[in-house]
Amino acid sequence: MSSQVYSDMRAKQKRYEALVHAFHGDIYRYAYWLTRDSTIAEDIVQETFLRAWRSLDSLNDEKSAKSWLITIVRRENARRFERKQLDLVDIDDVHVADDAFHANAESDHEELRILISRLPTDYREPLILQLIFGFTGEEIAQQLDLNKNTVMTRLFRARNQLRDMLGQEDTNLRGRSNG
Amino acid sequence: MDDLEFRRRVFADPNTTDKDVTEAIRQDSEKAQLKSSLQGLDAKLSQAVKVPVPDDLAYKLIWQQATAEFNHHKKRSRWFIAMAASIAFVIGITGTVIYQYQPVDMGGEALAHVRHAEMELPGLPVEVGLQQVNAKLAGFGGSFSAPIGDVAVANYCHLNTTLTLHLIMNTEQGKVSVFVVPHKGRMSMPDSFSDEKYHGESWSMMKADIMVVGDKNADLEPVMKKVKRSITFSA
To answer: What ipTM did this prediction achieve?
Structure first.
């Protein structure tokens, strides 16, 4: 009896570890792009996986596990806003200083990361789901509980804005080195 | 497909393989260029969104789960022990209270006592005098106004938790016990009671119940009469 319980626990532990190894990277990145803060992202991922352990029996296939984890990350992120509503400043409202960007932009990656982080959350989130998880428009719509047309519009605007910003950065850089 | 629609489609998903998008590219090199430039951007974006994951994150997640599970077990077992202790405590209290509130069957107690007393009773040669009996009965506020017979033993004893006066008398019917039981607490006093060896009868008086117990076949009437006639209680 107790050895049965023990081996059940071992099996559950193994499944959990497999889940962690399979998804923690992408889930962390997704949390990072929601929060744009590595420390908060890590906290959210920890909470998410704790919840995953408790619900492990219902996470049967890869697709539903991924979708479940994303849902929990979003919920945990939303809870953070409820908790800190009074003293939290949304970074969307704060202009990220261009000088800081230029001082640190040593690679294309970092440049693009800063531009992505400047996208409004509504545009950034579907884009991240598409880029990280390879979700189709349909899948993103399902995950975010939106209709597909809205999702496609947001993806269009996300890339459109990124291209605009990239063009501006080029102009700025040229202006700077010329002046 | 018009320009705007084409832009919407490839901006939303640069890697789309939709038939009409593919067809539009085939017919228009500018569109092909736009799509390919967007695909280039997307390749960069795909790399850029892969921010470095903390090295030890996976191990942290596994460790925190194990710790949480351990604490959960610890908490649960602590809770369980506390609960078990509470339940045991309540059962204990309830049992005691129920036991105390259960009326004591004095008849059964008296029979048990007689059974026991007989085994222990030494062959006492000396008769206990009326004075001695009355001295003991005075403790209950009573007295015998006349001798009731040959009293072999007059002792206080406990029937359950009630202090009683137990008289053992030698009579023609054999040994007969008389118990003077002061009113106290919850007792059930049957008018008559018996087991396989003895039988007894009781009656109630102002301050006490009297029980008379003798052998199965003994006639208790003479002793009862004597006691009833003789015993009085002061108000």
So the answer is: 0.80
